[in-house]
Amino acid sequence: SAPPAPPVVSRKASRASRTLWFVPLAIKEVALDNAIERLRVSAWALGNVAGGAGTSVPEHVNRYLSQVESAEAQLRSIFMDPEVWNRLHGEQFWAIRALSSGSPRPIALIDAEAQEQQRYVESLMERLKQLGDRITMAPGRLAVLDTHVLLHFQPPSQVNWKEVLGVDAVRLVLPLRVVEELDEFKYRGRDDLADRARRLLGALWSVLESTKGTPVRLTEGVTIELPVNDEPRRRTLDADEEVLSECSTLAAVGAPVTLVTDDTGMSLRAVARGLAVVRMPEKYLRVRTPSENAPPL
After folding, report:
1. pLDDT tens string 248-288
2. Phi-psi category of 129—alpha, beta or left, where left has phi over 0 and alpha has psi -120 to 50?
């Protein structure tokens, strides 16, 4: 039977698909070293597609398709977001499926695309390596804070996090999406919340700018960090989902992580994913006053 018709993809969309837009990678429960090694093997195999000199066009096409199928299987076994493996099937992939011996420069097209996909898989491998490095940057239990905690409870430096988490060392993690939501609060909502958001953001910048978001001491036994990535970023519509994905990814690779929130909906979604959740104690609620006298952070 004839192969399925390729989807209509604009050249602009195809170029965009080459970029690994940054979102917290939703990872299945995996051994990180094993996942990195499997990606390394997949990238190597894609790179070796170009070594098929002397083969016919149909043989070269089949060699390429076989390696793409193998790479897709590996990506499916490691990641949860279909966006990750769907990027193997861009405009060039479908063009290669339709190649024949009479097509202009077919081998060059196949080799170039295989090498491009090799680089893509290598970029995923690098992301996992960075995740592994990040986990070991500081001691302590990872505590992911949501926007609600920052806006409606005492500044992080005024909270006894060891007591809240029941551990001796704590790493406070602020997902980038939480900081973006604080930015949005500067220009909407109540005046007191807008002022609070501005003060928090200014304090975060002064503390984390020099370390580029890596862990920095906040109080005795407590660090704070803001994981960032210099790649282009695709924001999801669901802010809570992005924060939960951050938690799920850390938990999937064996990092001790707890979501700290006072949002009931967020808590229920986290529990449904098997994540550890701590509800922020009410004793740390902020008292609304005309002016903020507490430290911003």
Report:
1. 989 988 899 999 999 999 999 999 999 999 999 999 998 75
2. alpha
- With beta carbons less than 8 A apart as the criterion, state whether 201 and 179 touch: yes
Average pLDDT rounded to a whole number, residues 206-227: 93
How many Cβ atoms sit within 10 Å of the Cβ of residue 189?
Answer: 13
Helix 239-252 to helix 176-185 angle (10° resolution) is 160
Nearby residues of 31 by Cβ (< 8 Å), 6 or more positions away: none
CB 267 within 8 A of CB 248: no
HEC letters along 150-169: HHHECCHHHCCHHHHHCCCC
- Answer whether 167's CB lies under 8 Å from 198's CB: no
Are 143 and 243 contacting, i.e. CB atoms less than 8 angstroms apart?
Answer: no
pTM summary value = 0.78
Residue pLDDT, tens place only, 108-130: 999 999 999 999 999 999 989 98
Q: How many CB atoms lie within 10 A of CB 241?
A: 17
Diameter over CA atoms, the chain: 78
Q: For the beta carbon of residue 201, count every other beta carbon within 10 angstroms.
A: 18
Instruction: State the Cα–Cα distance between residues 133 and 148, nearest whole angstrom.
Output: 29
Phi, psi for residue 239 in degrees, rounded to 5: -65, -40
- d(CA 25, CA 20) in angstroms, rounded, equals 10
